[in-house]
Amino acid sequence: MSRLLVAAAACVPLLTGCVIYADAAGETVVVRMDSGTEISADTAPESLRAVRFADGALIARVDSNGCTRAADFAVSVAEGTPVDITLTRTRQDPCKAIVHEGVELRWTYGELGLTPGQAARVANPLRL
Asked: How many Å separate Cα 94 from the centre of its chain?
């Protein structure tokens, strides 16, 4: 099984496109446009506390030590109906604050490469 995951991860760069931009706050954000869900042998999708689509954006509540930002996540958008969105933390939060409720992060439909009203689902696990 792990060999299959490693082989799949090796093929992913051949099938993906990547958009890197700075958002309004000046943070660098990476959004991957895939023909399938990105698989990596050493990273797993972030467990989310809550997720919703509202006001033309994906809003996810994640664990935080006080310094977590949207730029700390890679966002993978896999084509399909609906599109599958996966959030993967690329940078750990080095701060020492205790944020019991976590923080809400936001990606607009435009940042995700989606049109308003386009069917989408989030593939990350939920942590209750």
From this structure: 19
